[in-house]
Amino acid sequence: xxxxxxxxxxxxxxxxxxxxxxxxxxxxxxxxxxxxxxxxxxxxxxxxxxxxxxxxxxxxxxxxxxxxxxxxxxxxxxxxxxxxxxxxxxxxxxxxxxxxxxxxxxxxxxxxxxxxxxxxxxxxxxxxxxxxxxxxxxxxxxxxxxxxxxxxxxxxxxxxxxxxxxxxxxxxxxxxxxxxxxxxxxxxxxxxxxxxxxxxxxxxxxxxxxxxxxxxxxxxxxxxxxxxxxxxxxxxxxxxxxxxxxxxxxxxxxxxxxxxxxxxxxxxxxxxxxxxxxxxxxxxxxx
Length: 287
Fold this sequence. Notes:
Number of strands: 6
CATH class of the largest domain: Mainly Alpha
Strand content: 15-25%
CATH superfamily of the largest domain: PhyR, sigma-like (SL) domain
Number of domains: 2
Radius of gyration: 20 Å
CATH architecture of the largest domain: Up-down Bundle
Number of helices: 13
Helix content: 40-55%
C-alpha cells in the first residue's frame, strides 16, 4: 500500500468508525468493520477509485448491513435489556448534531430499524449524503431511499427524547444524585428526578442489573439506593465523564471499569438514566 493510500484511509477512519458504531452499537464490532474495510482498501488500486470517501462509505455500510444478521441472533438470547457499548469521553471534531446521534437513547431507537433503514437514516440525516450517493450504497433506487427515510424518520422522531442541560447544570445534578444515592437520601433524590423518569440497565447476565426498564421517580429512587447499598464497593472510585455525548459517571475498582452511567437531563431534572455493568461492554475503557 502506498503512503498516499494509507493517508487517505486514516483521513476517513473517524467517519468509518462513526458509521459502523451507529449501525452496530458495539465498539468491538465497529472496529472490526473498520479493519475489514481497511483490508479491502489495501487490495484496491487508487486508479480504480473516483472518490475515496464514497468508496470507503459504501464498503463499510454494506459490511454493517450484512453483519446484524449474525448479531441479531445473539441479541435474541441476550439476558435483560441490550444497550450499546458506551463511548466515554470521546473527543471528536464532530458537530452537535453528530454528537447527539451518538447518544444511547438515539442508538437504542436505531436498533428498532431494519439494517437498510438504519443505513439510509444515518447516511442522510447524520452525514448529509445525497440520495444519489445513498442509492448505490444500499442497492435501492433514489425514490425507494426517500420512502425508506420517511418511514425511518417518522419512527425515530415520534420516540426520540430531547435533553437540554448545560454542562454546569448536568455536573451539579450528577453530584447531587451521587450524594443522595450513597447517603440514602431518598427525598433529595426525588427532588432531582422527573416524575416519569426511566431507568434502563444492561448487565448481560454477567453483572448486577435490572432485567427490564423501570419507570417512576419513587420506584427508581428506592431501587437505586437499595442496589447501591448492596453492590457498591467501598473501594470504588467514581469519575465524572461524557458518555455518548451525555453527562455521565464511570466507576472503577482499581483499573477495572465496573459501571457506566449516562444521564438524560431536561428541565433541570433527570429524565432518563442508563446503567451499563456488563463487563464485556466495559473492557475497552481505561482510566
